[in-house]
Amino acid sequence: MSQMRSRVRGGSRFFIRNGGPLVAYPLDRIYEEVGFIAYYFHWPHDEIMNMDHRERRRWCEEISRMNRKLNEESDRPGGNPFDVFGKR
Questions:
Q1: Helix, strand, or coil here: 14?
Q2: Alpha-carbon distance 21 to 2, whole Å?
Q3: What's the pLDDT score for residue 53?
């Protein structure tokens, strides 16, 4: 397996394969992942940007799982913690 090293330039993460071409992760996808995590967890930009793609995707999946669970619970009678007056 070839060695890869990572560099951050201008907010984009680039990977350089030894002797191979430059491979960049799509910038719009990075913004989507960072925005999603920052919105829900309020983590600092630098902390999220220092994660690799797999870790960011894992956190996005975990946030989505938590939201699905909360939505399922809110569909049950008395399951919405914000419905303090029992009105749906």
A1: strand
A2: 12
A3: 87
